[in-house]
């Protein structure tokens, strides 16, 4: 399988604590976690620095996650299971 770029929305739904989600968002959470588990087994997940920054910002601003906890989620959730790809200017 080819590399798969995962956008920040997928990461956010996967990383948010379930008690903070509505029923509809809980379904999205479960789908996103399942998707990432399958892709991780293939070792093909790719992210960009922009996605890392967006996920960190959204966790802090929208969901009120403490900065240290947000950094931990980024380290363990994104960087641990994916490959960082540098996006060059065209």
Automatic annotation (TrEMBL):
Highest taxon, organism lineage: Bacteria
Gene3D superfamilies attached to this UniProt entry: 5'-nuclease (3.40.50.1010)
Name of this chain's protein: Protein containing PilT protein
Organism: Candidatus Thiomargarita nelsonii
């Amino acid at each position: 399988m080819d590399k798969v770029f995962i956008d920040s929305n997928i990461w956010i739904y996967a990383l948010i604590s379930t008690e903070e989600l509505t029923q509809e968002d809980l379904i999205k959470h479960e789908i996103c976690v399942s998707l990432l588990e399958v892709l991780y087994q293939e070792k093909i997940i790719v992210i960009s620095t922009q996605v890392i920054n967006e996920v960190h910002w959204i966790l802090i601003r929208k969901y009120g996650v403490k900065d240290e906890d947000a950094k931990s989620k980024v380290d363990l959730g994104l960087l641990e299971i994916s490959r960082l790809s540098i996006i060059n200017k065209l």
